[in-house]
Each structure stands twice: as C-alpha cells, then as structure tokens.
Amino acid sequence: MNTTKMSQESKVNEGGTDKQGREVSTMEKDSNTMNSALTVTQRAAICFAAGVIGAAAVVLFSQILFGLGLSATLGVKAPVSLKSPDIYKPLFWGGLWGILFGLFIKSAWNRLYLAGFLYVLAPLTALFLFFLPKGGLGYFGLHNGPMFTVYLVLVNLPFGIVTALAARAIIGRHP
Question: pTM value?
Fold first, then answer.
C-alpha cells in the first residue's frame, strides 16, 4: 500500500514536470509568434490608423496653406473645417485609403517611403476622376479653374508619406 502511494506520487510529480515543460514551450511559441510577420488583418488595421494620421496631416496642411494665404491665391476660399462633423469625413476616408495601403505594405517595405510618396496618386486619381465630377466640379475640379487642381495636388501631397511614416512607427522593423 505504501509502495502504491509512492508510485502515484511519482506519477503526479512527473506529470507536473511535464506540464511545466509544456507551459514553457507554449510561452516560447507565443514569443516566436510575436516576433513573426503581421497578418494581413493586422497590417490593414495598423494602416487604417496610419491613414487617419495621414489625413490629419492633410487637414492641418490645408490650414497652414490657408494661414499663409496660398489657398486664396490658388482659388480656395476656406480650409477644411476642423469642427465636428466636417472633420470626420476626411479622417475616415484617409483610414479607408490606409487599409488599401496596408494590403501591399509588406511587399513595399524596403522602399516604404517612396511607396508612400507615390501612393498619394491613388486617392488623387479617385478624387479627380470620381468624387469631384460627382460633386459637380468636373474632372480634375476644372470647373473651379486649373489653380484649384494645383491646390488639390499640393494639399494632398503629405498624405502618402505621413501614412508611411506612421505605419513604420507603429509596426517597427518588420511588417
């Protein structure tokens, strides 16, 4: 009877040791997972936030251009409003464009800032060929004159690079 009890105790001790060994290996796996690449969903979520930051840069840049008097020279009477609900629309759209940026950020990681700088062409193309004509301003916003088109290009330039900078700051070294 005493021998049986010792045998059971040793099995419990062995089981406890095995369990601790399994816990360590699980912690190691979690650590390795955290160091591995991000999933597409994680990159998209991070780049949504980065796109919102990029859109905020565009809104602030429009305020700066207006304050310097360049907006009036280029045919714009008022900057983007900072009041609610007007501010939410460009920030939300910036986030959506950021998600699209997140879908290819991994392949563009080595040239991220160049990709970010060139990425502004995607939202500008949509603006010029879809949103402005739908809003009654004609293709490229030419109903307001060619200087308005120059203003739109100028004010939107910070979007891509700031989105890339924000994504790099959030993600770190490897996407």
Answer: 0.75
